[in-house]
Amino acid sequence: MEIKEAIQLAKENNQTAFKFLLDTYWNDVYGFQLKRTENENDAEDITIQTFSKAFDKIETYNDKYVFKTWLITISKNIHIDLIRKYKSSINSKINSKDDDTVYDIPDESPTPEDKLIRKQNLARLLRDIKKLKPHYQEVIHLRYFQELSYNEISNELNEPMNNIKVKLLRAKKLLAQILTKPNAS
């Protein structure tokens, strides 16, 4: 499959085209982020977010530009946004008074009420995960509950790593749709 053909098919929501584009450009985007973040998990997460955002916005892609450059730009912007969020969360915890720096560090240990709310939220999340097809449930469970790497999941399920990446990407999108539905309980 040619890149231009794959992009056109992806614009028509062709899953094979999405997989082809993911397989073709995964290493480029991941390598770019690995150099920036110097952290494999962060690089993987940002790369997944990059493809997710790119596939959501594929109809806006202008073929005057190189597709790889478009993906790298999206990836760079996601990373910059994450850094900004991180810095703003740190800055919001720091106050200055008369040249002395005072750090307001609240007690963030969970109260009994927090624990109860988390337990209910986890129960709801698990209930919503069960609405997914079994193979999507499995990759979500292995990645987020057992905290396995993509490589470990690939070995566990005896599937190519790119299949795992696509499955996880799809599972997260479907789960997000379930979670954001009104009256999802």
Automatic annotation (TrEMBL):
Q: Where is the RNA polymerase sigma-70 region domain?
A: 23-87
Q: Kindly give the Pfam families that the UniProt entry links to this protein.
A: Sigma70_r2, Sigma70_r4_2
The residues covered by the RNA polymerase sigma factor 70 region 4 type domain are 125-175
Which UniProt keywords are listed? Sigma factor, Transcription, Transcription regulation
Keyword Transcription applies: yes
Taxonomically, the superkingdom here is Bacteria
Q: Which InterPro entries match?
A: RNA_pol_sigma-70-like, RNA_pol_sigma-70_dom, RNA_pol_sigma70_r2, RNA_pol_sigma70_r4_t2, RNA_pol_sigma_r2, RNA_pol_sigma_r3/r4-like, WH-like_DNA-bd_sf
PANTHER family tied to this protein: RNA POLYMERASE ECF-TYPE SIGMA FACTO (PTHR43133), RNA POLYMERASE SIGMA FACTOR SIGV (PTHR43133:SF60)
- What does the sequence similarity comment in the record state about its family? Belongs to the sigma-70 factor family. ECF subfamily.
What protein name is recorded for this chain? RNA polymerase sigma factor
Species name: Winogradskyella litorisediminis
